[in-house]
Design a protein that fits this description.
Strand content: 15-25%
Largest sheet: 6 strands, mixed
Shape: globular
Helix content: 25-40%
CATH architecture of the largest domain: 3-Layer(aba) Sandwich
Radius of gyration: 19 Å
CATH class of the largest domain: Alpha Beta
Number of domains: 2
CATH superfamily of the largest domain: Dihydroxyacetone kinase, domain 1
Structural class: alpha/beta
Number of strands: 14
Distance between the termini: 43 Å
Strand order of the largest sheet: 1-2-4-3-5-6
Number of helices: 8
Length: about 325
């Protein structure tokens, strides 16, 4: 294992500290916790959007804290959910009197701990709503979509909810926007090599140099098919086909597209993936409104990528194009 770290057990803490030191124009660390909040938090009268989850997926989640995006993010250790106490502390630090929306990927540890935190906050008189993000097509069949994991599509759901909150919407309205985004977001990933968790020093799974796995999760969860490496165009065709079978898009549909790197895949390859996806979508009569290519939800140094499509409604298009200002997403209006 070759990693630029100090203590393998302090990676999550030092990562959050480094982020806060590097980007004080956007956010600040919450004293005593592995958590960050937007620099001007709490914003009075605005619904607060809180996200978070295990570390190791940088810049997800803490990199998406700032104006026009999440108000706060709490980090667990590598691939581990944050416990309830820091979630509660972060929610209180960003609560401006209009309630708090929890947004996180649909994993059992996160569900347990965020639900416990919500109960604690409700007991203190703070209203909390929750949307569990479930964009990973490979993780469960369509009839069990509520069991699916959240992966890179988290970005689109967080972006939509946060933009709606910036408009001054109520907690119910912000929650509805997050649900609409989640319902219209689908992702499919591909992995070529494992990552190594610092504390263990070992790969989390084994895969041969000649193989790839379609649908593998961000923590090495099994995918839907393992087979020989294919050219980028054929690989992307499989990924996009899985998404479009799950979320039909008639000709004339507009989408947001995210090609996300898992940590070790060069930008050149991600752009080749986007090129192939662009060709397939245009050929199907689907129009790309906004595209994002790069590392947004990684798995340490795993090689591979994911493709996420957000099917746009009039509301979601407005929210996607709204401005955002954070370490990992800077976007002007439109």
């Amino acid at each position: 294992m070759k990693k630029l770290i100090n203590d393998p057990n302090q990676v999550a803490r030092e990562t959050i500290e480094g982020l806060a030191l590097a980007y004080p124009q956007y956010l600040r660390q919450l004293a005593g916790w592995q958590a960050v909040v937007r620099r001007d938090a709490p914003v009075q009268g605005k619904v607060a959007v809180l996200t978070g989850g295990g570390s190791g997926h940088e810049p997800m989640f803490a990199g998406f804290v700032g104006r026009g995006i999440a108000d706060g993010s709490v980090a667990g250790n590598i691939f581990a959910s944050p416990p309830p106490d820091p979630i509660v502390a972060t929610a209180k630090a960003i609560h401006g009197g209009a309630g708090v929306l929890f947004l996180y990927g649909n994993y059992s540890g996160d569900v347990l701990n965020f639900d416990m935190a919500a109960e604690m906050l409700e007991a203190d008189g703070i209203r909390v709503a929750t949307v569990r993000i479930s964009d990973d097509v490979a993780s469960a069949p369509l009839e069990r979509r509520t069991e699916r994991r959240g992966i890179a599509g988290d970005l689109f759901v967080i972006k939509a909810a946060a933009a709606r909150a910036e408009e001054g919407a109520t907690l119910d309205e912000v929650t509805a926007a997050a649900e609409e985004a989640n319902d219209n977001t689908r992702s499919m990933g591909i992995a070529f090599s494992s990552c190594i968790i610092p504390a263990s020093g070992r790969p989390i799974f084994e895969i041969s140099e000649q193989d790839m796995e379609l649908g593998m999760g961000l923590h090495g969860e099994p995918g839907i098919r393992r087979g020989p490496m294919l050219p980028a165009s054929q690989t992307v065709e499989q990924m996009v086909s899985c998404i479009l079978e799950d979320l039909p898009m008639p000709r004339g549909t507009e989408v947001g597209v995210l090609v996300n790197g898992l940590g070790a895949t060069p930008l050149a390859e991600l752009l080749i993936v986007f090129r192939a996806a662009h060709r397939l979508l245009c050929g199907a009569g689907v129009s790309i409104c906004r595209s994002y290519v790069g590392n947004y939800a990684t798995s340490l140094e795993m090689a591979g990528c994911s493709i996420t499509l957000l099917r746009l409604t009039p509301l979601l298009k407005r929210l996607l194009l709204a401005p955002a200002d954070s370490p990992a997403l800077v976007q002007v209006q439109g």
